[in-house]
TrEMBL record:
Keywords (A to Z) from UniProt: Cytoplasm, Isomerase, Porphyrin biosynthesis, Pyridoxal phosphate
Pathway participation: Porphyrin-containing compound metabolism; protoporphyrin-IX biosynthesis; 5-aminolevulinate from L-glutamyl-tRNA(Glu): step 2/2
Catalytic activity: (S)-4-amino-5-oxopentanoate = 5-aminolevulinate
Family in the record: Belongs to the class-III pyridoxal-phosphate-dependent aminotransferase family. HemL subfamily.
This protein's GO CC annotations: cytoplasm
EC number in record: 5.4.3.8
Organism: Citricoccus muralis
Protein name from the UniProt record: Glutamate-1-semialdehyde 2,1-aminomutase
Enzyme superclass (EC): isomerase
Length: 443
């Protein structure tokens, strides 16, 4: 038990972090929030509106994290807040089917070519279920993933590569068994010959390839022209499933997610999809979706078990529905324009300060990498080889000037349709100083 400190409740960011560390591991409920890669004390937020966050000390920031993606329409969008209020008044959870989960599933199926949608609460559950389904459908055990792609924190998906083309894997976390890691083959992203070789050697054992539609968790890495279609063809040829993880990019990279820029244009569809982030509009909701023949293997119809007490929670469904219903063409136009504008401001400031960099883009998402202008970033090795030391001082300079960036260089920058001229001006005012700080940073 910890002492009750309510009489002297901390109010500064630093004091809140100190108090949190006494009762929450590392003071945070998700590791990247701890500022581990940028140093300093994390900021505790108490309020959000439109493009802004307000911390416990009353300081306001332009938010370029947007809760890691969900806040497509900005914070506290009136239509979303109204829908949530109405849902709360009607009851927090019923433990039964509800009309809104049906409407959200139908809405998702109207935007991307999926026959069935099963709601879960987190992206981690969605990818975990997709893998189980792929194994159940194929009767095979192995899963291919790419180094640097993040698919949530289930055991098998935390396997990371050894160096080079790994056909054996090491556990990426304590507590993941070697047996689990051995069933995950980790390959370099964008590397067709590594895939060809792996499938030539073990194709009969491979249940699925899981990929981020466009990687956004090692910074953004743009899939090379035709790479996703190559994945589709290769898996089909070998009787493996393609699991298309759009937890981050879904209904954000474009109106039809990254698939809208890739499979839709090239004329192919994956077998299974995972969604999260935007489809919950800020509430805990995610989904696994796909072709009927595969999805109908799920319980209660089929032998692949999956369940969730709060799956399709009515308040979360209301937030997700209101968000997707309001995600109009105009919203995507604004997202696209603001993210282009942000990139131009960033590139202008870095160029002016003489900071070598490259920008990687995936639809309305992008990230910056330092010292990479010669070759760009095509995989995890490239991402790791950049001048990461320039990011921490850059991040803190922006924070000081009221701009909240992702606290790691290995993350995408997120805008919302609420990012207006005033918000952009604040970013524009902060960038030149931050760029100069990044220029003089040393390893
Ligand atoms: C965020 C994310 C996940 C995990 O979702 P959680 O809701 O955090 O469990 C899975 N895949 C991708 C691509 C993600 O960005």
């Amino acid at each position: 038990m910890t002492e009750n400190t309510s009489n002297t409740a901390p109010t500064t960011n630093a004091a809140l972090y100190d108090a949190a560390r006494a009762v929450i591991p590392g003071g945070v409920n998700s590791p990247v929030r701890a500022f581990g890669s940028v140093g300093g004390s994390p900021v505790s937020m108490v309020k959000a509106a439109g493009p802004y966050l307000t911390d416990a000390e009353g300081r306001e920031y332009v938010d370029l994290v947007c809760s890691w993606g969900p806040m497509l329409l900005g914070h506290n969008h009136p239509a979303v807040v109204d829908a949530v209020h109405r849902a709360v008044d009607a009851g927090l959870s019923f433990g039964t089917s509800t009309p809104d989960e049906l409407r959200l599933a139908e809405l998702i199926a109207s935007k991307v070519p999926v026959d069935r949608v099963r709601m879960v609460s987190t992206g981690t559950e969605a990818t975990m279920t997709a893998i189980r389904l792929a194994r159940g459908a194929s009767g095979r055990n192995l899963v291919v993933k790419f180094a640097g792609c993040y698919h949530g924190h289930s055991d098998g998906l935390l396997a990371a590569a050894g160096s080079g083309v790994a056909t054996q894997s090491l556990p990426g976390s304590a507590g993941v068994t070697e047996a689990q890691a051995a069933e995950t083959l980790v390959l370099p992203y964008n590397d067709r010959s590594a895939l060809e070789e792996t499938f030539a050697a073990r194709g009969q054992e491979i249940a699925a390839v899981i990929t981020e539609a466009a990687p956004c968790n090692m910074g953004v890495v743009t899939p090379e022209e035709g790479f996703n279609q190559f994945l589709r063809d290769l898996t089909e040829r070998h009787g493996a499933l393609l699991i298309w993880d759009e937890v981050l990019t879904g209904f954000r990279a474009s109106a039809a997610g990254y698939w809208g820029l890739s499979g839709k244009v090239e004329g192919w569809t994956p077998d299974l999809w995972t969604f999260g982030k935007v489809i919950g509009g800020g509430m805990p909701t995610a989904a696994v979706a796909g072709r009927a023949e595969v999805m109908d293997l799920l319980a209660p119809l089929g032998p692949v078990y999956q369940a969730g007490t709060l799956s399709g929670n009515p308040v979360a469904m209301a937030a997700g529905l209101a968000t997707l219903q309001n995600a109009t063409e105009e919203v995507y136009g604004t997202l696209s324009r603001r993210s282009q504008q942000l990139e131009e401001l960033l590139v202008g400031a870095l160029t002016e300060a003489g900071v070598d960099h490259s920008i990687q883009r995936a639809g309305t998402l992008f990230s910056v990498a330092f010292g990479t202008s010669a070759g760009g970033v095509h995989n995890y090795a490239d991402a790791q080889a950049q001048d990461t030391f320039r990011y921490a001082p850059f991040f803190h300079a922006m924070l000081e000037h009221g701009v909240y960036l992702p606290p790691s260089v290995f993350e995408a920058w997120f805008v919302s349709s609420a990012h207006d001229d005033a918000a952009m001006e604040r970013i524009a005012a902060a960038l030149p100083y931050a760029a100069r700080v990044a220029a003089v940073a040393t390893a």
